[in-house]
Specification:
Shape: globular
Number of strands: 17
Oligomer: single chain
CATH topology of the largest domain: Gyrase A, domain 2
Order of helices and strands: HEEHEEEHEEHHEEEHEHHEEEEEE
Strand order of the largest sheet: 8-9-10-7-1-11
Helix content: 10-25%
Number of helices: 8
Strand content: 35-45%
Distance between the termini: 38 Å
Radius of gyration: 20 Å
């Protein structure tokens, strides 16, 4: 049955090929989900994160970064404005900490935060032709959605929220619905398009690294700031104050960013223990934060932070491992 079609043996090879030639479907319920309601919700989030959010209208969305007072990354969040609430998609395991962070700065504001991580799920549809199966199930609205925009839809007899998200393999969508509806949504998508391949969530990792998309707990930690993580598109330089704004603005004004996130090609067939030290010319330059074997090839691709002067395409670096150094090449900026 098409409702059970999946990539064989957990291998990322079929997923890699299907994403670049057609489309893939993965359960992304490990991502966090927050429902944020109340008349002061948008204003509060505008004052707590890096992007300009006040002007968002229903159906629009934006990527924004929540940071500490020192400008360090707490999480990259995709925020979507719906008619009666905001839907925040967080990194894995970040919903509860983010809810607590919002509560910490909520005083007299009329804001209600619900953690939907246990009550709702998320399906991810990615690849060069990802819009096709989505449009067949929810309608042509899928093709018209700009990045981070959201639309309430009905699919498989259930209400859901469709968002366009960071592309993997060419394009990307998320469908968010109550947990009980996720299996029916999954079946509807697979039945609608014979070319759609169901994969395991872990099979997305090569595509994430290829796209240079940082992940919570790997590239997105309190060790780094948003400029280092190449999150420029999630930062407004013209909005007013927010938590961490002074530090982030100063780093930009005075060009004080010490490290930058880059994509790396590494000559090896087994991913080293992470994080691994990166060296250039025998001296430390940064850290490898993610690495995975390229499907069908005897080499690794990775993401890592290197000194700003080493963040240039073609720079040869070494990955320090217990078995000895692995040669690597900086491919370019992560995003």
């Amino acid at each position: 049955m098409s409702g059970t079609r999946a990539s064989g043996g957990g291998s990322a090879g079929p997923a890699w090929e299907a994403a670049h030639g057609a489309a893939i479907l993965a359960d992304r319920s490990a991502l966090g989900r927050l429902s944020i309601a109340g008349e002061d919700a948008l204003d509060l989030l505008h004052r707590l994160s890096t992007n300009a959010l006040k002007g968002l209208r229903a159906g629009e969305g934006a990527a924004t970064v929540f940071t500490t007072a020192k400008g360090r990354i707490l999480d990259l969040v995709c925020l979507h404005r719906l008619e009666n609430r905001l839907l925040a998609l967080t990194g894995e395991g970040r919903a509860a900490p983010l809810a607590a962070w919002i509560d910490r700065y909520t005083f007299r504001e009329r804001v209600q935060v619900e953690d939907w991580s246990g009550t709702h799920g998320t399906l991810g549809i990615f690849g060069a032709r990802a819009a096709e199966p989505v449009a067949r199930v929810v309608g042509e609205v899928a093709r018209r959605l700009p990045l981070h925009a959201a639309a309430p839809v009905t699919a498989a007899g259930t209400a859901a929220v469709l968002t366009r998200t960071f592309p993997l393999g060419g394009d990307g969508f998320h469908l968010v619905a109550e947990t009980s509806a996720i299996p029916a949504l999954r079946r509807a998508l697979l039945d609608a398009d014979p070319g759609l391949l169901a994969i395991e969530p872990g099979d997305l990792e090569p595509l994430r690294i290829e796209a240079g998309l940082p992940a919570a707990g790997r590239e997105l930690t309190e060790e780094y700031n948003p400029w280092e993580a190449r999150l420029d598109d999630a930062i407004s330089l013209s909005k007013g104050c927010y938590v961490g704004q002074e530090v982030i603005a100063r780093l930009h004004t005075y060009k004080k960013v010490a490290h930058l996130l880059v994509r790396l090609d590494i000559q090896g067939v087994a991913a080293p223990g992470l994080p691994a030290e990166l060296r250039y010319g025998g001296a430390p330059t940064g850290r490898l934060t993610s690495a995975v074997l390229v499907p069908g090839e005897k080499r690794l691709i990775g993401l890592g932070y290197v000194r700003d002067e080493d963040a240039v395409a073609g720079r040869i670096v070494e990955v320090v491992t217990a078995a000895g150094p692995l040669p690597g090449t900086v491919l370019g900026a992560a995003r």
